[in-house]
Every structure is written in C-alpha cells, then in structure tokens.
Design brief:
Chain B: It is a multi-pass membrane protein. The complex is a heterodimer of chains A (about 325) and B (about 325). Chain A is mostly helical and about 325 residues long. In chain A, about 70% of the residues lie in helices and about 0% in strands. In chain B, a hairpin with a 2-residue loop joins strand 1 and strand 2. Chain B is globular and about 55 Å long. Classes of the chains: A mainly alpha (about 325), B mainly alpha (about 325).
Chain lengths: ~325, ~325
C-alpha cells in the first residue's frame, strides 16, 4: 500500500467513554444513515413499507458479505480486487454444474469450493511468494473473469433447479429474506472473529506494524493466507446467493463489484492503510449504501448517477475528518 | 549495475515480443508485414500514451484508477462540443481536451497532495464520479459519427510516412515523456519521491507537490486520449474505455514498473503496452477466441509481478532465521 503512514497522536487524557462513543466514526456514519432514512421517507411515499425495505436489503447483502472479509484483509494491510471475478468464476462453475444435472447441495458446494480455491491462489501468491497484493489481485481478477469468459463467451447459463432459488429468493420468516438473515449471522461471526479473538488482534497487529508483529511471534504469512482464503470463501457464498437470486449466469456478472465492496469497507471507517476499523462500521456503511441506492432508485435516478453519489460519499467521508483534524491542529499553534 | 539490470529487463521484453511476432507470422504469413505492424502500433497508441501517464503516477508510489473514466468524460465533452459547434477549429478542441483532462487529474492530485489521502481511495471515488458526470453531461445519449466534423474524425487517420497521425502522436508523447523523466527536475523528483519519500524530503523535494504534478500529467494525457479515442472509434458514449484503467496498470507492471514506486522506465511502459497490443491483435489471427484475451493478460500480469519481485528484492539483513528452513526473512519484503 502506498502513502506515508499517518502520525498517530496519543492524547494526554482520554475522553470519557460517552464522548468517545459519540465522536466515533461509527456514530457519525449512523447519523448519516438515519438522515438518509428520513430523507428517503420524505422523498418517496413508497419508501416506508416493510416489503419495500426488505427488497432494499438485496442491494447490499451480497456485497456486504464479501465486505466483512475484505475489511479484515484491508485492516491487515492487504487488499483483494479479484472478489468480483471470483464471484463470476464461481457462478460460471455452478452454471456448468447445473447443466450437467447436479442438484442443489452439489451446486452450493461447487460455488463455495471455487471461491475457496481462488482465495487459495491469491493467498499463495501474496503470502507465499510475498508479492504486492494490489497488483497480484488485479492479475487474478483478469484471470478468473477471463476463465469465465472462455467458458461462457457471449452465452449464458440458466436452468438452475427450483430448490436452488431459495438462497437468493427465499424468506426465513415474514419479510426477512434468507440473504438478510445470512448477512446478520455473518456480521456477528466476523465481529466476534475480529474483535474478540486472538486471531483478530493479530490482524490488527499486522496492519499496524507488520515488522513488529513478526518480531512478536505472529505468523504473518499464515494469517494473511487465511484472510485471502476467507475472502475467497465469502465471495463463493456471495456467488451462491447472487446466482440463485438472478437465476442465470453471464461472464459479466458482478462486474465492478470490487470497487463497490472496497468503497463499503472504507466508508465503514476501515483505514485503507491498515490497522484500524470495525465490523460495526462496515455493517452501517452497508446500510448507508443500500439506502442511498434504493432511495434514489425509487426516485427514478439512473444507476450511473447513483454511482456519483457513492463516489462522492466515499470522498467526502474520507476527507471530512482529515480537514477537521487539520483545522484543529492549526488552531492552538 | 542497476542501469544494466533495467537494460536487461527491456531487452528481454523486446526479445519476447520479437519471438511472439515470429511465432504468429509462421501461423499467418501476413502478420509480420510492415503494414500490419504499423496497424498494431497504431491500435496500441492510446494504451501507450495512457500507460505513460499511469507510469508517472505509479513511480511516485501512487496509482491512478480514474484514467479510463477521465477518457470517457473528456471524450464525451469534446464529442458533444464538436457536434454542437462544428465551426470550432480542431486545435481549440484539442486544447479543451487537454485542459479538461488536466483539471480532472489536478482534482485527484489536490486530494493526494493537500489532504494526504491514499491515491487508491481518491481515484476509486473519482473513477465513478467522472464516468457518472459523462452520463449527466450527455443524458445517456451517444454522439455518432455523422454528428462529428470531418477534420475531427479524419486528422488522426491521416497517413504520414505509412503511419497514421495517431501513431505519430504516440511517438511524440513517448519522446517528450522520455525527456521529461530523464532530463528535467520534475522527472527526477518523481523518481526520488517514489524511491524513498523520506530521503526526497531531505533532498528538498516537495513529495506531495511532485505527486500532484504526476497526477496532472496523467490527467492531461488521459484528456488527449479522450479525443483520440472518440475520433478513432467515431463514437462517444458513457461506457467508452470501461475497465481500461486496469490495462494501463497491466502495461506498467509488464514493463517492469514497480508498484512500490521509484523503479521503471519510459521504454518499459511502452514495451509493456506493445506486448498487450501484440497479443490482442494476434489472438484472432491464430484462431484463439478473443474471449481468451482477458485470461491471458491476467496470467501475464501475474507472471510479470513474480518476475519483478525477484529483480526488486533487495538483499536484506539477516535478522531472524526460521528454525526449520534456512530461508532469509527479508527486511525489504
């Protein structure tokens, strides 16, 4: 990763836990989410409807699943730009398997298996051969999606078994879709993994100072490898959900998602330089992005204009704290 | 010693490209004729120019993911300008293209320079914003060939000594960039601030400002390519050059430009772009589906990264030895 590491200023006195809570990135983001929610419900009469809101969650659940694993990866100082291509390749493999008459359990296993396999490839290249992850995953991104293009060309796979549709279209109870429940469960799993386990602390340690982490006896390469594997696994799971929801596979499936997923993670307060961030922030960021796109969709705003808002959201949320910090530092003199 | 290593690297690429051409011409006798080679060079011109812009940014330890979006926006702007005011001379349109490109590049640069935000985040955001702005500008409409004036369309196609002006433009840009990178203060500052930012500061180089100018160069070249692209393909629409930013990064990586900054040459970037251009043009000739292009360039990127890493790896001090293996833990890694 580029750029000079930021200076970390340690204040003489810690604020009270309340001021820290309200001053945190997550609190700011939560306020933004609430504002967007209110603005949406004022702007469109169709917004406040349980089923509509349930539909809105499909905008972000699949991306958020990958974003959880990506958050860990970025905290450790690496990045994986091949996630969308992994989704495409996993989806293509499932499509081919469905053509061959394999049933739903087999399809899920194949989708997740391909995801894990791709994650292992990335892991070997970055952790094993110690190559810079940003370039490696740009390469594997072309490779994975390229394989999907070789297999499919300009054709599409369809004809998935009826029971396969449950993952993307089924509801667990009332308006809560399978995808949303899975999203919630995975959020908890990743929050525990990052914030309450030894493994999570090591991820932070590597991101803050890989060199020091190595000297403290942390197996840096092994943890990075695991993180790439996890990201592959989550991409595989996202591929199962997305393929099941769309019911067809084209090689251009999930095109451009890697950027949206990275945006989601960074918007969630994870430092792109590594070493800082929380899963809670990513969850709120997922909601913010989902609400923005869904609200604008209800107002008939075209998708590409929405992407301007997402881009602006990313830049504004990143620059605002920096500007505030610069302003604060100048004042005392 | 290091210079010789670079020479070796570029010679190797020249040899590989020559071997590729020889192999392809055995399959298809017409492939290696001067006329066809001029065609391939002409076809690769835009990639060469953009790769040079990308190179200046990567050399300063940054990355510019917004180049393709810049091409799309500038291309759309000059296309619409030409359609609306056919009486404007081409020179004026060219100046407008360069200015728009420079401004878009400067916006990236300002964020990186003044706010010290990682370039990958900034350009990830501006990537979606610039392309979205192209949509807002045009309302999603296309500018077609019949709306453009003859000089606008025909000038880059004029043959001069057997090569179209488009190809000559690339040659001129390559020459100018070579002089800038090797003979000017800015060029040397770009190398210095990527190779060792701290040392560059001690040497009196403003690293942030140097990065800013690198982004301006990249943006200006992208602006030029915006016009060239629209004129070459005789159409302007929102999605032109989608995903092309990765091709420019790929060309740089293949050409031996280190993504860690400070290492690389103009010749390397040009050869990297030519390598991609030759394979792209050769695939249909040797009856490989064009859909394989993506997977091939992905594999080549990965191979190039592995190759680069072997060359760049500096011998570090041996501080720790793994218990089992006698493998060195490299400080630089």
């Amino acid at each position: 990763m580029s750029a000079i590491p930021e200076k970390r200023l340690i204040p003489d006195r810690l604020g009270t836990s309340a001021t820290r809570l309200f001053g945190s990135w997550e609190a700011l983001l939560f306020a933004v989410a609430v504002l967007i929610f209110i603005a949406n419900s004022l702007a469109s009469p169709y917004f406040l409807n349980a089923w509509n809101l349930s539909d809105a969650t499909f905008n972000f659940t699949e991306k958020a699943m990958v974003a959880f694993a990506m958050a860990l990866l970025i905290i450790s100082g690496e990045i994986d730009l091949s996630v969308a291509a992994i989704i495409a390749l996993a989806s293509t493999a499932m499509g081919a398997a469905a053509q061959a008459g394999i049933g739903t359990p087999g399809l899920v296993a194949i989708g997740i298996g391909v995801g894990v396999g791709c994650g292992v490839v990335n892991g070997i290249l970055v952790a094993g051969l110690r190559l810079p992850s940003i370039v490696v995953t740009i390469g594997t991104m072309s490779l994975f999606r390229g394989i999907a293009y070789i297999v499919l060309g300009d054709k599409a796979y369809g004809g998935y078994p009826a029971s396969f549709a449950y993952f993307g279209q089924g509801y667990v109870f009332w308006v809560f879709s399978f995808e949303f429940v899975l999203f919630a469960v995975l959020a908890i799993v990743f929050a525990v993994l990052l914030h309450a386990t030894n493994f999570g602390r090591r991820v932070y340690a590597i991101g803050n100072n890989e060199f020091a982490a190595r000297f403290s006896g942390i197996r840096v390469e092994r943890i990075k490898f695991t993180l790439f594997l996890l990201t592959g696994l989550m991409s595989g799971i996202a591929a199962v959900c997305l393929t099941s929801r769309l019911g067809s596979t084209r090689p251009s499936i999930a095109q451009g998602w890697e950027l949206e997923i990275v945006t989601m993670v960074v918007l969630g307060g994870v430092s792109i330089l590594g070493g800082a961030g929380t899963i809670g922030g990513v969850v709120i960021a997922a909601f913010v992005m989902g609400l923005v796109t869904f609200g604008l969709g209800l107002l008939n705003v075209p998708g590409i204009v929405m992407s301007i808002f997402i881009g602006l959201l990313l830049i504004v949320t990143i620059t605002l704290p920096v500007i505030i910090r610069q302003f604060r530092h100048r004042k005392p003199a | 010693m290091i210079r010789q290593l670079f020479k070796f690297r570029e010679m190797l690429l020249v040899i590989i490209i020559a071997i590729l051409l020889a192999v392809f011409s055995t399959r298809s006798p017409g492939f290696a004729t001067p006329g066809n080679l001029a065609n391939i060079f002409n076809d690769t011109s835009i990639l060469i120019i953009l790769a040079l812009g990308q190179m200046t940014v990567i050399l300063t330890k940054s990355i510019d993911l917004s180049v393709a979006a810049n091409v799309a926006f500038t291309g759309m702007a000059v296309g619409m300008l030409n359609a609306a005011h056919p009486e404007l001379p081409l020179v004026l349109i060219l100046i407008v293209a360069l200015c728009i490109g420079a401004v878009l590049g400067a916006i990236n640069g300002i964020f990186v320079w003044k706010l010290n935000i990682p370039s990958i985040v900034v350009t990830l955001g501006t990537l979606t914003i610039y392309r979205g702005m192209a949509f807002v500008l045009s309302g999603g409409a296309w500018v077609n060939a019949h709306q453009m004036t003859a000089p606008f369309l025909q000038t880059p196609r004029q043959l001069f000594l057997g090569l179209p002006i488009l190809g000559w433009t690339a040659i001129v840009i390559v020459a100018v960039m070579y002089l800038v990178m090797s003979r000017t203060f800015l060029g040397r500052a770009i190398y210095a601030s990527g190779g060792n930012p701290t040392a560059a500061v001690y040497a009196g180089i403003d690293v942030g400002r140097t990065r800013f100018f690198a982004f301006v160069i990249s943006g200006t070249l992208a602006g030029l390519c915006g016009y060239l692209w629209v004129s070459r393909y005789a159409v302007a629409y929102v999605d032109i050059a989608a995903g092309f930013e990765l091709d420019t990064v790929a060309a740089c990586v293949i050409g031996g430009i280190s993504t860690l900054g400070g290492i690389g040459s103009v010749a390397g970037a040009v050869l990297g772009a030519l390598f991609l251009g030759v394979t792209k043009n050769a695939l249909p000739v040797i009856n490989i589906s064009p859909f394989a292009q993506m997977a091939i360039s992905g594999s080549v990127i990965i191979a190039a990264v592995i190759f680069n890493a072997r060359q760049e790896r500096r011998r570090g001090r041996i501080i720790l030895r793994d218990r089992g293996a006698s493998e060195q833990i490299e400080v630089a890694a």
